[in-house]
Amino acid sequence: MILTKPRINALLLFTAYSAAIVAADGFPDLKTTFVLLFGLGLSGGGSAAFNMWYDRDIDQIMSRTQNRPLPEGLIKPNHALAFAIILGVLSFFVFYLGANPLSAILSVAGYLYYAVVYTVLLKRRTPQNIVIGGGAGSIPPLIGWAVVTGDLSLTAWAMFFIIFFWTPAHFWALALYKNSDYKRAKVPMMPVVRGARTTKIQGFIYTLILFFTIIGLSVIHSFGLFYSITSGLVGLAFLFVTWRLIFEPDNKFIWAKRTFIASLIVLPALFSLMVAVTLWTSLI
After folding, report:
1. Mean pLDDT, the chain, as a whole number?
2. Which of 126, 150, 174 is the last residue of a domain?
């Protein structure tokens, strides 16, 4: 179960189902809900298992990941790889047979993006690993939308970019106070390669773009004035936190930890607002 990174997978499922609710103007039917959550759970869990299989060498070095099943020898590497591949294949067929080809293709794209593009090609080679690789975690809303409608819209893409531009500040805040781990493992995260100061400034810039993306969604989709004001305030609050982080001494990590915690609140808050407004509108 730990191989599938259930906490991360839960956030993927949440954003996908939120997008499905917005696309359906209410709760999707039971079949659609099952296909989406089961299929994406397989895809997300499979790509996470592949990530753990591939990163088992550096996971053994980093204190944050030393207790994962592969570094501890609880699971054989070839078993983990087989498990990862099987979940990815099953996900494709769940979406293809239960929903539509577009959702199946997006599921495969998300799987390969995280497993191959991020894990294999980017993570150990460039400090832009998180920025480029952030597309993997941004795909679930596209899948949620496609399962319901069979196509994609500007609203779905705006949700994609909200997650995409949220990702750098989220992961770099963690990397700031886990910097020694990444140094030992020789993973070129932004704080390791460019230093804390550059990382903080770039994190703020991406959060600023995130803020304008949040405003853009309000223009693209008619969520209403309440959503526009509330989501804007959420975006501003996160922007303040990342701005304050810039002025923290590089050997202190209070605001780095606060930024990471804030990021874990911001994304669910934004998607919860979308759901709440959509459901309320459907009732009146």
Report:
1. 95
2. 150
5-30 tens-digit pLDDT: 999 999 999 999 999 999 999 999 99
Residue 170 shares a structural domain with residue 204:
yes
- pLDDT tens-digit series, residues 36-72: 999 999 999 999 999 999 999 999 998 888 888 898 8
User: Which are the contacts of 91, defined by CB distance < 8 A and separation ≥ 6?
Assistant: 39, 40, 42, 43, 46, 107, 108, 111
- 13 and 141 inside one domain: yes
DSSP 28: P
pLDDT for residue 284:
67
Does 264 lie in the same domain as 130?
Answer: no
Distance of alpha carbon 52 from alpha carbon 81, whole angstroms: 9
Name the nearest CA neighbour of 282 among 12, 28, 16: 28
Number of domains forming the structure of the chain: 2
Contacts of residue 71, defined as CB under 8 A and 6 or more positions apart, other chains included, come to 56, 59, 60, 65
Q: Which two tokens stand for residue 230?
A: 């509330």
The three-state DSSP-derived secondary structure of 146-163 is HHHHCCCCHHHHHHHHHH
Token couple for 7: 């906490």
* 159 and 127 within one domain: no
**Domain end marker among 129, 150, 171:** 150
